[in-house]
What does this fold into?
Amino acid sequence: MLSAVTNLGREDVTGQVNFNSHMDAVVAMAVRLVNTLTAGESRGQGYAPPDGPDLARAATAVLRAVSPNTDDLSQREATQLAEFAQAFRAVFAAVASGDLDAAAHLVNRLLAVTGAHPWLDRHDGEPWHLHFQGAQDSAVTGWAAGCATGLAVVLGSDLHSRLGVCTAPHCDRVYVDTSRNGTRRFCSTSCQNRVKTAAFRARHA
It folds into this structure.
């Protein structure tokens, strides 16, 4: 993780852009949080995020997908995480609309709110690497601080346009474009296929 900034944007042998293993993880977490915990549209249908007890279970599952030892989140913690997810969505939306200044201000606010700061940690047999834990020692604030820092690193590079919002009709899920040519427009192959199918039918109508 020490190379989080110096390796940002290098391409591997497959031609994919790799921000860095840890930055990949926290930016990907921001995507998962937005797409799971914020309302809107998904793959052609309206999307309502989980609420009530389901919200706590869903939020916990998102974190456990990356950090299996995460404790069950309380309702309050899950609600807080959903609020951070909404803020992350605003960052993606600002970048997608071409308003990088607004995106940067939003991320700066998130960095301040979470108290994000770098510190070295070593766990699970890994070498020393950077974390960006927040001011409070909690999974929610810690992940929010990490996501905010990851977004800050991406925005502070020439790869900020890799943050996107799906352009398929009736879908507003977000994504990070790691392709070589940076031409991704959809959150999933499902949305890409929907658009291709609609275009095919229009041509043959």
Summary: The longest helix spans residues 75-96.
